Amino acid sequence: MSKKYLVIGGVAGGASAAARLRRLGEDDQIIMFEKGPNVSFSNCCLPYHLSGQIKKAEDLVLMDPVKFSGQYNIDARTNNEVLSIDRENKSLEIKDLLSGKTYTESYDKLILSPGAHPIVPPIPGIEKVNVFSIRNVVDIDKLKKFIDKVNPSRVTVIGGGFIGIEVMENLVEAGHKVSLVEALPQVLAQFDEEMVQILHKEIMDHGVELIVGDKVTSFDTDKVILESGKEIISEVVVMSIGVLPETKLAKQAGLELGKTGAIKVDPNFLTNDPNIYAVGDAIEVYNILTQSNFKLSLAGPALKQARSVADHIHGKVVNNTGYIGSSVVKVFNYNAAATGLNEKALAALNIDYGWAQIIPKDKVGIMPDAEELGFKVIFEKPTGRVLGAQAIGHGNVDKRVDVIATAIKFGATVEHLRDLELCYAPPFGTGKDAVNFAGYVASNLLHGAFKQVSMSEVRGLVEQGAYILDVREMPEYELGHIKKANIIPLSQLRDRIEEIPRGVPIYVHCRSGQRSYNAVLTLQAKGYTQVFNISGGFLGVCCYEYFNDKTLGREPIVSDYDLNEHLPK
Question: Would you state the torsion angle of the CA atoms of residues 418, 421, 426, 429, taken in this order, to the nearest 10 degrees?
């Protein structure tokens, strides 16, 4: 006997659920309601219309109602808004936004995929500026047409998350002057502070006025006013400070919300009504690392949830393995990827953890396009279970983080990372890939083979007059070094070891951390007990210090910066 399934919302979650339902039941009646004009569109590609990489707004539309009906025999009703859910009678009240008429539809099962809406707080004076937010094709088309019409002297993007970064980048690519304002001390909160500093430099180097640690308190005519008192003249403001789950219908229907404010679902994505499912940005999901629920606004999880719902409706077993959150973003010439938990999250959870931070080459070093790769792996103590990873570089950082994401899902430890067999050829990677390398370093740290300090601690060490040992070769030292550092090249270390004082902590660095690790082991073998490797070496220190040195006007702790041998110093 055929069934009637109604789906509220299109895009990744709703459209995918509807398509999967059809594959599992050819004779069922499936109706999907979308209050916007499009059945499905590429949400993540929206910012790329601003730069012209995606030339026409209509190119963002993945499926129209006619094609959806023809391919899947699904009645996709765009410009139809669901007004209410009658759980008792298992029906919806719907308004056709074009005709203005209202009508009802009954259902056997209902799937909610309403998504999320941009946060636009009632900041004083907001009516005096041209404010835009981005949720769909209509929004991005409206923004681009307005910018093309007024040709603003400056566009201000408020919010340094993924969407804010992508909007900023594409506006710059289109030739506009841009200010990016982030209330937190850094952009991209998924990354730890020391990792993200090189991205701050990259943004600044592309002419963006990057303001972090300062928030918008009011607006005036074509003016953004910050808490610090700074004023930005800007004819266009793009709000990108986050999204809130769209829960209005769910609340009106008496469906249960979770602690995050999103719709609460069980492992099969059922709400507290046995005939109503929910997927996508509107729900909270289970984090396998924190063992608690969280919100995860990503397309990949929404697609998986949609398939699971259709399977459960048809009696198939659903294996809900939870989520960890994996993402990647392009920031001009850099790529940045992250998965799992970062140090901020772990500190808040009071979980005992360790970390390994390295800057290896992303492929064989003599290859002409080899680049440094900033890579960090975070692990649990004492088990060594992998909890997270972050990678930033010019190359394929997603490959390394995808490997770690897979490892986390299978409960791997840092010892497993050492043993992974990964593809190798000089144009693609090294025989000991960055993932393997991080596993070796993390294992050594876990088992106490050596100790380390973060690049973020070096300024404090310099100010305290700590003994810092530079083991690079003299030509490297002369190009740039940590002020007051002691230079003994690794090639001379054994012959000059008596020059190094005993009884005080020794902080050792090279350019990226590998030679200094060898120096640490040599010193330990010679009876030195307070020896620490500086993670990331001189390159890491320079990347960490540069942005704040330039923006705060503070005294550098280095004589000159080494940021990347393929970029101008």
Answer: -50
